[in-house]
């Protein structure tokens, strides 16, 4: 399978795995929901899990890939405050945990870029199909 076909499926797999984790082990996700959001953290955990599962399906399907990948990039931007909250909350934890929480922050950038790349690849594939 060419890399261009594998990348969307890997992104879909990441989204599906994280979405499922929101339901299988919700407590860590509840803990990083910013307190400024209305409602219960569990509601936000489940809502974001559903969003990730829906986006995983959308990214996996060529017909919806472009839109879903762009929405995925937006999701990765949108969850950044939760990652910041986690880094702040974990500032007094043992060094390896603190380092892991802080190290997550810059990884949002490549995740956003990956999702945008998948969207661009879908756009290119759609354009190429239209010319055939």
Structure summary:
The chain has about 130 residues and is mainly alpha-helical. The chain has helices at about 5-25, 25-30, 40-60, 65-80, 80-90, 95-130.
Structure write-up:
With 132 residues, the protein is mainly α. It has one domain. It has 6 helices and no strands. Helix 1 crosses helix 6. The longest helix has 37 residues. It starts with a helix and ends with a helix. The mean pLDDT is 91. Keywords: Membrane, Signal, Transmembrane, Transmembrane helix. It comes from Streptomyces asoensis. This is Membrane protein.
Please tally the β strands and state the result: 0
Return the average pLDDT rounded to an integer. 91
What class would the helix/strand composition place it in?
mainly alpha
The total tally of domains equals 1
Q: What's the helix-strand series? A: HHHHHH
- End-to-end Cα distance, whole Å, is 22 Å
Number of helices: 6
Sheet-strand content, in percent, reads under 5%
Q: Unreliable segments (pLDDT under 50, ≥5 consecutive)?
A: none
Largest sheet: none
The radius of gyration is 16 Å
Shape summary:
globular
Helix content: over 70%
Features:
132 residues, mainly alpha, 6 helices, 0% strand, globular
Give the arrangement of secondary structure elements.
Elements: H1 3-24, H2 27-31, H3 41-60, H4 65-78, H5 80-89, H6 95-131
Helix pairs in contact: 1-3, 1-6, 3-4, 4-6, 5-6
């Amino acid at each position: 399978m060419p890399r261009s076909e594998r990348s969307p499926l890997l992104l879909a797999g990441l989204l599906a795995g994280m979405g499922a984790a929101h339901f299988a082990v919700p407590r860590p996700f509840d803990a990083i929901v910013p307190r400024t959001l209305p409602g219960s953290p569990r509601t936000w955990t489940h809502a974001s899990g559903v969003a990730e599962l829906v986006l995983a399906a959308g990214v996996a399907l060529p017909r919806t890939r472009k839109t879903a990948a762009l929405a995925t990039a937006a999701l990765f931007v949108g969850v950044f405050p939760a990652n910041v909250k986690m880094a702040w909350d974990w500032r007094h934890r043992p060094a390896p945990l603190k380092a892991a929480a802080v190290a997550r922050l810059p990884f949002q950038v490549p995740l956003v870029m990956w999702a945008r790349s998948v969207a661009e690849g879908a756009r290119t594939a759609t354009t190429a199909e239209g010319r055939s």
